[in-house]
Amino acid sequence: MTLILGIESSCDETAASLVTGDRRVLAHALAGQESAHRPVGGVVPEIAARAHVEILPGLIEQVLAEGQVSLDEVDAIAATAGPGLIGGVMVGLVTGKGIALASGKPLIAVNHLEGHALSPMLSEPGLTFPYLLLLVSGGHCQLILVRGLGYYRRLATTIDDAAGEAFDKTAKLLGLGFPGGPAVELAAKAGDPKAVKLPRPLVGSAEPHFSFAGLKSAVLRARDSGLHTREDIAASFQQAVVDCLVDRTTRALALAPEATALVVAGGVAANQTVRTSLTGLAKRHGLPFVAPPLWLCTDNAAMIGWAGALRFEAGLIDSLDTPPRARWPLDPDAEIVRGAGVKA
Ligand code: KG4
Ligand code: ZN
After folding, report:
1. Domains of the chain: which residue ranges?
2. Relative to the alpha carbon of 13, which ligand is closest?
3. Which end of the chain is flanked by fewer CB atoms within 10 Å, N or C?
C-alpha cells in the first residue's frame, strides 16, 4: 500500500502527515502560529517562514513516531510547492527535497489548491468526480469543478480579497481581534443581520466571480457613521458574504450541471451560517452537500499527503530542482481575471 510523508507550510500553518493510498491518515501533526501573528493582526510572511524552519523538523519526527513508520517504509515525500507565501513554501519544499535526497525516495511537488480540491475524498469515500468545490479561506476564494486527478476547471475566483481575508479585515476594523472569522461570527450572534445596508458585490453577474473589497469599505463607513453597534455591523457583514457565496455558487452550478455534489473547503467553511446556507443550496439542487471535518477543511498536511498518494500512484513524480511558486493556478486554462493576479 502506498505510504506518503506529507509536508505543508504555505501560509501560517506548519504541518506533517503520513497518508496511505487507501485513504488512511496514519498520523498528522499541525502547529498554528496564531500567537506569533496576533500582535500585528495578520500573517507576517517573514515571521511565518522562520517559524516553519523551527517547527517543521519536529513535526516530521512526530508523525513518523506516531505512525510507527521509518523513512525506509515511505514511498515518496509530498511537499507543497505553491501557491503561497514564498518563504514558507521554500522551507517546506526544501525540507521535502532534503529528505527525498537523503532517503533516495521520490519527491512529489503538490499544488496546495490541489490538496484542498482532493481532500474531501478522505472523509467522504462515496464522493465521485466531477464535483463542485467552493474553496473559501484566508488566501483563496474559488469555485472549482474537480473532474479528476489533474483535471480542474476554475469557474470563478475573487477579483480582489478572499472571503476569509474580508472576515479578517472586518474584524480588524471593528476591533474584534485575530483571527477574524471566528470573532466576527461570535459578534454576529448578538447582532441583527438586517440592521446595516451593505452591498452584495457582483451578485447577479454572469460570471460566478467574487469581490469583497467594496464590502470592506462599506463596513468602514458603517463603523465611522456611529449609527450602528459592532454586533449589528458584524451580523450584516456576515449575511452579505453568505449572500454572495450562495449567489455565486448557484451561478457556478448552472455552468456545471454535471457536478455530482457541492463540496466546501477552507477556513470560512467553519462558519455555521455559511454551512447552513450552502446545505440549503445543495438541497434545492438535489445534490449532496459535503463539508469535511474542520481540521481537513483548513490548511493541513493530510491533504498534501493524499494528493501525493494519488499522484504517486499515477506515476507523477517531480525532479529535485522543482522551484517553489508563489503563484500557481490549478487550472492553466483559466482566464486571467482583472485584479485577480494575487489570489488566482
Ligand atoms: O483555510 P485556512 O485555515 O487558511 C488559509 O487561509 O489558507 O482559513 C483561514 C481563514 C481566515 O481568514 C479565518 O478568518 C477564516 O478562515 N475563518 C472563518 C471562520 N473560521 C476561520 N471565517 C468565518 N467564520 C469562521 N468561523
Ligand atoms: Zn489553504
Report:
1. 3-116+296-328, 128-291
2. 1
3. N
CATH number attached to the domain at 128-291: 3.30.420.40
- Counting ligand 1 atoms within 8 A of each CB, the residue from 85, 268, 278, 294 with the most, and so the one to mutate, is 268
Neighbours of ion ligand 2 (CB under 5 A): 137, 299
> Do the two domains 3-116+296-328 and 128-291 of this chain adopt the same fold?
yes
Does a cis peptide bond (omega within 30 degrees of 0) precede residue 83?
A: yes
Instruction: Report yes or no: 156 and 143 within 8 Å, Cβ to Cβ.
Output: yes
Ligand 1 site residues (CB inside 6 A) read 11, 137-139, 164-165, 167-168, 179-182, 185, 266-268, 270-271, 298-299
Q: Is the pLDDT of residue 217 over 60?
A: yes
Mutation probe of ligand 1 site: the residue of 298, 299, 300, 304 with most atoms within 8 A of C-beta: 298
Please tell me the pTM assigned to this model.
Answer: 0.92
Ligand 1, residue 10: give the atom nearest the CA: 7
Tell me the pLDDT tens digit for each residue of 5-32. 999 999 889 999 999 999 999 999 999 8
Q: Which residues of 155-194 are buried (b: 16+ CB within 10 A; e: fewer)?
A: bbbbbbbbbbbbbbbbbbbbebebbbbbbbbebbeebebe
d(CA 256, CA 286): 14
Q: How far apart are CA 299 and CA 13, in angstroms?
A: 7
Q: For residue 171, which atom of ligand 1 is closest to its CA?
A: 14
Which secondary-structure segment (H or E) carries 222?
helix 213-225
CATH code matching the domain that covers 3-116+296-328, chosen among 3.50.50.60, 2.160.10.10, 3.30.420.40, 1.10.10.10: 3.30.420.40
Nearest CA residue ID for atom 6, ligand 1: 138
The label of the residue with cell 468602514 reads: 220
Distance 298 CA to ligand 2 centre (A): 6
